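I'd like us to work through together how a protein chain folds, taking it slowly. To get us started, please write out a protein record for me. Go ahead whenever you are ready, and we will take it from there:
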Amino acid sequence: MDHRTTTTQDRDLAQRHAEGWTFLVEALRDLPTTGAVAPSGRALARLLTDPVRHHPARPLNVLEAGAGTGSVTRSLIPLLSPGSHLDVVEANPRFASRLHHLVRTHPALATRGDQVRVHHTLVEHLDVNRSYDVIVSGLPFTNFTPAQVETIMNRYLELLHPGGTLTYFAYRGTRYARALATPSEARRHRAVEELLVHYHRRYATGCWSVWGNLPPAKVWQLRCPPTRFGAKHHTAAGTLR
């Protein structure tokens, strides 16, 4: 076996172990906002990034929200064609620090580091002068309130180009876990799921299960309508605001 291949594999394995420990520490520190106890696996990352993979030669504006330790970011970077741009948003300061390091040291960005920018902020507060062809969301929606989820989803729709694609995932089985918690937690979780169903009915183009992930996950793909809403979006109740 080529020594260089072995060295790369060893480095990747060490990196994944380090990510796993970082994720676990942050989950123990604040599970509601971390949303998981392990980074996204390769199969999940591949499904989330498929919309970028489908346009290999076209310059794209891509947004990744809730990037964590960068497991999906590392899948996105090699897919960036010349002229593409990736904005990575992460609110956790320790995760954001790791993401800055990833961008500084990734070999594919050695001569084009300006293609990727890390933003330490909430996606609701992201201040950019571009719209996006693809948004990849790693935010733990079922840990949020319905109002927070609606704000984030409508922000995604504002940021997407007409016809642009949003992918996001949710862990399977969370409904049953919440049912064992307090009644208020069960009600909040159910309200978030009902809100997301509203968006699925309007915009979803696909849904896939990733059983090999830890924990198993479901990936949703939504498409922004080909005409702009402007500043107004439909709420779950069907009214305009």
